[in-house]
């Protein structure tokens, strides 16, 4: 069994908040950043929660994260804005930008905000779900450290570039599609590395571009493979989606793109001759009742969901799942049972407690 | 070798135009519909070109396509509209709706039009590319006849539900990502059926939900598999994307969705108790210079494209391709060499010539 320590959500949140304060973030921003990370841990996306906290701290130590950013709207129209995030935590600029998109959408039916000069924004679902609370559809994307090889390439050119949609429902929880455009997210690979287990076929290629199951392939010059995994199964589609997310997040916003995207890990150098500022994100909010009355929409969403739940299963033990449900059920469960941390993550957090002289739960 | 007949694009366009006129479409609509189909054939998307012409005719004969539609904007805001397409050809309502989205975007920075009561709209790339001509990014989606099983299901619940992005560039042709959210589009399967060849693994499941390579599996109660092909390779992502496209196209617009989407083939009955009108589409236009000056964007797009073209290849004979380039090169080639038609498609068109008493090239 994996060695795990279980902490209550509130304890972990209190500690995380204290770390952001210690980095120099103000109270509001510390609260927002904590909320994004704890939402990831609560929803079972452990790779994007407090497991990354020490990574953010190291980026701050390397002067790549600014704890007291001044956001600047560089360009604006009725439905759109471009935001320079002043090297903020993406955990802070993300919710800010999504709220601006929501405000635009409440005026014109939809809003879109492109963000440059930002950093890793945590889980997309957090941001997209801000829109569903206002009876809007939320969309977000971000580019990320280059780890994925385009079709035909052995060079890493794209991040795992996630694309997220959150759609409100009536009696059911919101529909959430939140996915990396690679066959597997890097977080899943890190888990296999810790257990020293081979990766499934279709996730990785080696330094010569040949398929491999070595979970350490990335450390030896290999790359992640786009969603689809091989030519027969349509991995050009994963490449197309990842490239689209990169262009929206980087080229449209004025951030870096492709191989110029700054790495998340602070020990890797930044690319020479950057083509933009920091990493980039895109947020959209779409007001449902600009298209049809909200009651009609919500009742049809409920009908969509209940019909899909009833789809004839291959095995009656495994019914069809609605996108977002596994994370929603995990959130309910962990609110009661607490949040399990792997031993290395727990030790990592204890190290932060020592560094900042904080109490540790 | 496949038995092919090559026709000049102009000849084929003239004939196609005459067929739409014979169905009762006016000159403008016939021209638009012809242009959409011939663009598919020119770009090498043979499954979505004139090969479908007799299918549209049969839907018209079944009174499911209205050749003289009155489009009605049912709901409108500064950036958005919902359009009832009055059972039009999607080949006609698609360009109309995209132009409305473009008009909205020119006012507010972005526009989105949801369409209900429509029919099959041909290739998404045609519609999305209308936006790039105005220095905008174009997005479109449509739902379609249920052929794809969600993860865990043996029942067909979703169409191949394509998602298309077209992004303008400077000296290079536009970037176009135009993909079905299933592992393989149905058109590719039809080709294998004609040749009686097995399908690659990962495309299909049989009536019990088990993997199969039988190209006729759909005819025996099987289903297409979402992009990703299996659990290890992330086919829940293809399911999530297909479901998202269905909800945008159907639930938001007021069209049918999921298993209620009307089949493309006229001999299959419509679902009992429809939940909306016809099939649905979504179109978005995003004005680039609402986000950054257009010259900056275009030069960074050119830089993105040239850097990706130069990515280190696995095999120097197969360089990295830019999404949209294969279709662009095919278009240039077929403008000179003509459009190859498979014998059954050619015979099909000859049948239409007899039916409508038209000259056939």
Describe the structure.
The structure is a homodimer of 361-residue chains. The relative contact order of chain A is 0.17. The first copy, chain A, has helices spanning 9-23, 27-42, 53-61, 90-108, 124-132, 186-195, 235-252, 294-309, 325-337, 343-356; strands spanning 4-7, 72-76, 80-84, 110-118, 136-142, 163-167, 175-179, 204-205, 211-212, 223-224, 279-287, 339-342. Chain A has 10 helices and 12 strands. In chain A, helix 2 (27-42) crosses helix 4 and helix 4 (90-108) runs parallel beside helix 5 (124-132). The mean pLDDT of chain A is 96. Helix content of chain A is 39%, strand content 16%. The first copy, chain A, is globular and about 50 Å long. In chain A, the strands form 3 sheets. Chain A has a 7-stranded mixed sheet with strand order 2-3-4-11-5-6-7, with helices on both faces. In chain A, strands 9-8-10 form a 3-stranded antiparallel sheet, with no helix packed on it. In chain A, a hairpin with a 5-residue loop joins strand 8 and strand 9. The longest helix of chain A has 19 residues, at 90-108. Chain A has a domain at 69-293: Ribosomal Protein S8, Chain: A, domain 1 (2-Layer Sandwich). With 361 residues, chain A is an alpha+beta fold.
TL;DR of this structure?
The structure is a homodimer of 361-residue chains. By secondary structure, chain A is of the alpha+beta class.
Helix content of chain A: 25-40%
Quaternary assembly: homodimer
Task: Could you tell me the CATH topology label of the domain at 69-293 in chain A.
Answer: Ribosomal Protein S8, Chain: A, domain 1
Which two protein chains have the largest interface (Cβ within 8 Å of the partner's Cβ), and how many residues from each? A-B, 88 and 89 residues
Structural class of chain A: alpha+beta
Cross-sheet strand order for the largest sheet of chain A:
2-3-4-11-5-6-7
Mean pLDDT of chain A: 96
What does the largest sheet of chain A look like?
Answer: 7 strands, mixed
Q: Cα-atom Rg of chain A, whole angstroms?
A: 20 Å
| Shape verdict of chain A | globular
Query: What is the count of β-strands of chain A?
Result: 12
- Mind telling me the CATH superfamily name of the domain at 69-293 in chain A? Malate/L-lactate/L-sulpholactate dehydrogenase, NADPH binding domain
């Amino acid at each position: 069994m994996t060695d795990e320590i279980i902490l209550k959500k509130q304890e972990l949140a209190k500690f995380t908040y204290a770390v952001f304060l210690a980095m120099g973030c103000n109270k509001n921003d510390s609260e927002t950043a904590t909320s994004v990370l704890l939402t990831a841990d609560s929803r079972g996306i452990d790779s994007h929660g407090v497991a990354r906290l020490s990574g953010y701290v190291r980026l701050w130590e390397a002067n790549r994260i600014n704890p007291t950013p001044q956001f600047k709207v560089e360009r604006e129209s009725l439905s759109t804005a471009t935001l320079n995030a002043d090297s903020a935590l993406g955990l802070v600029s993300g919710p800010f930008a999504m709220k601006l998109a929501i405000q635009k959408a409440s005026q014109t039916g939809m809003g879109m905000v492109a963000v440059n000069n930002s950093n890793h924004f945590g889980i997309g679902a957090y941001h997209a779900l801000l829109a569903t609370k206002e009876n809007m559809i939320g969309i977000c994307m971000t580019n990320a450290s280059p780890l994925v090889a385009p079709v035909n390439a052995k060079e890493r050119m794209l991040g795992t570039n996630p694309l997220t949609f959150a759609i409100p429902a009536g009696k059911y929880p919101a529909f959430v599609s939140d996915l990396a455009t690679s066959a597997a997210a890097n977080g899943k690979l890190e888990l296999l590395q810790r257990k020293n287990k081979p990766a499934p076929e279709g996730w990785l290629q080696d330094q010569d571009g040949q398929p491999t199951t070595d979970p350490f392939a990335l450390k030896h010059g290999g790359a992640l493979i786009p969603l689809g995994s091989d030519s027969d199964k349509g991995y050009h589609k994963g490449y197309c989606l990842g490239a689209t997310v990169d262009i929206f997040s980087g080229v449209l916003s004025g951030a870096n793109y492709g191989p110029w995207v700054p790495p998340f890990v602070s020990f890797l150098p930044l690319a020479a001759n950057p083509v933009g500022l920091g990493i980039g994100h895109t947020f959209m909010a779409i007001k449902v009742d600009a298209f049809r009355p909200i009651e009609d929409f919500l009742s049809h969403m409920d009908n969509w969901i209940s019909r899909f739940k009833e789809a004839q299963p291959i095995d009656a033990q495994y019914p069809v799942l609605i996108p977002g449900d596994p994370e929603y059920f995990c959130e309910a469960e962990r609110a009661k049972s607490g949040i399990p941390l792997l031993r290395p993550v727990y030790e990592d957090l204890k190290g932060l407690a020592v560094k900042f002289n904080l109490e540790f739960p």
